[in-house]
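Exercise: predict the fold of this chain.
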Amino acid sequence: MFSAGSEPAGSEPAGLDPAGSHPAGLDPAWIRDAVARALDEDLGAAPGRDVTTQATISPDAAGVAHLVARSGGVVAGLPIVAEVLAQVAERLGRPDVVVRLLVADGASVAAGAVLGALSGPVQVVLVAERTLLNFVGRASGVATHTRRWADALAGSGAMVLDTRKTTPGLRALEKYAVRCGGGTNKRMGLFDVAMVKDNHVVAAGSVAAAVEAVRARFPDVLVQVEADRLDQALEAVAAGARFLLLDNMSTPLLAEVVAAVRAGEPATGRVELEATGNLTLDRAREVAATGVDYLSVGALTHSSPTLDIALDLLA
């Protein structure tokens, strides 16, 4: 529901006007498709309808609304706002809403900050409200959570990575939000990086057999190997793996494995090491101090709370 704003009707804050742009690395075609699916969920099959708004708001009514952060955090997903509004306007046969964004994705904002101003047909704004807030709130929540990890690791030499534990259909958005928050993307899916885990080793017969099988079938991809013991890590390096996932290890064991792998690097070459599993913000610095290159945190995407963002129609 809209609440009354503090500015007079028709007013708009001055600021950026990137409404026609898309976030770097987020495919505009993906945005269009994701928005269309989301609107179908809310309105029914295109063109769909909003029985409340279309019954109570004149098609000719125009106004201004502000996109407002109710909680402080890191913003992400704002350029999707214009796409949602454009598709709603097309479905309703109404003029486009003018979008003026006042902050950029990746910016830290305080509670109460106005993120953007929307001016145009009120019907379009109200119909689009929940869909655009869902996208921006979800992305901003992931970015905000990621920033906490990035800040915790600042200066340590280690980076925080995301995982594939994403919301189905929203992986591109959530991984983009991780980048907005200062994190780094790992693999996008099963297609771009091979990750040999315990079940693959069981099926193949050994770590070496699994690594060799991947390299024979897909020689162009990076091979990563999961290990939860020192002997497994050394076996993986001996098999040719140059990226290890050190899974659910205590801090002392991590330090031992890192030291052993680093000691062998004059012969093997650089091996990238990732700590994963059982990681918390309280442990971030001590885990980074073991010398790992990365901490992968599934919670960035599977457990980030949505950032509270609202749309206020100005009275």
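Check your answer against the key: The longest strand covers residues 62-69.
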